[in-house]
Design a protein that fits this description.
Helix content: 10-25%
Number of domains: 1
Distance between the termini: 15 Å
Oligomer: single chain
Largest sheet: 3 strands, mixed
Low-confidence stretches: none
Number of helices: 3
Number of strands: 5
């Protein structure tokens, strides 16, 4: 699942093909979360360190969780920590790729 939330001034509408093409995996489903509900459910940026066992962060977030990938093991249930968190995605794309193979 790829969840898009508005964060930057240019993010105030559903992402189009030029944005979704950054995730070419045919298994990916894209969702638009205009109200940032998922970030709130995760506890916002203040709760980021509790979201995964392994974390690789290259920037500090102020309020919403954004430009972040969380990789969960098969069969994971809501509330379980991810096995990997990377942010920003582009900086750690090789690690992310290995985690989802």
């Amino acid at each position: 699942m790829v969840v898009w939330e508005p964060v930057l001034l240019t993010d105030w509408r559903r992402p189009g093909g030029s944005q979704t093409s950054y995730v070419p995996d045919r298994r990916a489903e894209h969702f638009w979360d205009v109200d940032r509900r998922l970030s709130a459910l995760y506890g916002g940026a203040a709760n980021l360190d509790a979201l995964a066992g392994t974390r690789q962060k290259g920037f500090r977030m102020k309020d919403v969780v954004w430009d972040t990938a969380l990789v969960y093991p098969p069969g994971a249930r809501w509330g379980q920590p991810a096995k990997l968190l990377v942010a920003p995605v582009a900086k750690f794309q090789e690690d992310l790729g290995r985690a989802i193979e």
